[in-house]
């Protein structure tokens, strides 16, 4: 791999949320420009507004017309709009949604063209970003569609804790009917492959949570655990995926059993993310596994309630930046090792 620094594309997210604040605060970390090259897709007006609001004077942006003009060892800013933006911290506006999408659209295009190496996304509002070009529940689904991947996996990560979900952004009342043996097996495959490729875990151990209280109590509290989840786990083990479960979610996390596994597969969003965010605190990040590209984000949303107050923590966003680079390096190295192994095998 080249010694040239990794080019990290950073999307602005919602300009009225905490995105600009956590970007600025993260860039105050002196390690960043030594480790990688940040490329922010945003707005001069927005970033200068928040620099002034938070009295941040130690960050200077290198203006770039495109990703081809970026300068290493500088914080690069591609201003994607000349609109006279009305910045209103904490307020949901159509203009903020439009800018968030334009930022994402250009960054993803540059990523596909190899003008940047990885993508770190700022928090968006899933409602005001909606348009004919973005009709998705969130980043994960948009990136899967753009990458021609049937289904990507939201994998929440914090040091040794990694949590994926079978069903994502859907109403709770729809979860049971969306749980299927095929869906669970697909997610287990995605986690298994990601642990090997992106985290260099050679023989992953994956815990699978049950859907119902007490994992159904042998059918007393629901049939899905016994009739759907157990067969999926058995099918995974036949494919040499070391999956164990189903575990009752409350006891599994309360006992610390999660520490014995490389990843956990939950059945629905809150079942996995509530314990994850409780345990991870500000260190947690969101990694989109199963894509040909590397994308991470902080494990929180726009946080309108504290936007503009200067109290947002940048820790999760900083972790997302460094984690994206770590995953990119590991993925590159593991692919090279696989290619070399195949080359040796063919020669033999």
Largest sheet: 12 strands, mixed
Please name the CATH architecture of the largest domain: 3-Layer(aba) Sandwich
Helix content: 25-40%
How many helices? The count is 11
Order of helices and strands: EHHEHEEHEHEEHHEHEHEHEEH
Task: Categorize the overall geometry.
Answer: globular
Strand order of the largest sheet: 3-4-2-1-5-12-11-6-7-10-8-9
Structural class: alpha/beta
Please identify the top-level CATH class of the largest domain.
Alpha Beta
**What is the tally of beta strands?**
12
In what range is the share of β-strand residues?
A: 15-25%
Structure commentary:
- This protein has 348 residues and is an alpha/beta fold.
- It folds into two domains: 1-152 and 291-348, Isopropylmalate Dehydrogenase; 153-284, Isopropylmalate Dehydrogenase, CATH 3.40.718.10.
- It has eleven helices and twelve strands.
- A hairpin with a 5-residue loop joins strand 11 (285-289) and strand 12.
- Helix 7 (181-199) packs across helix 8 (224-238) and helix 7 packs across helix 11 (315-347).
- The chain is globular, with a radius of gyration of 21 Å.
- The mean pLDDT is 93.
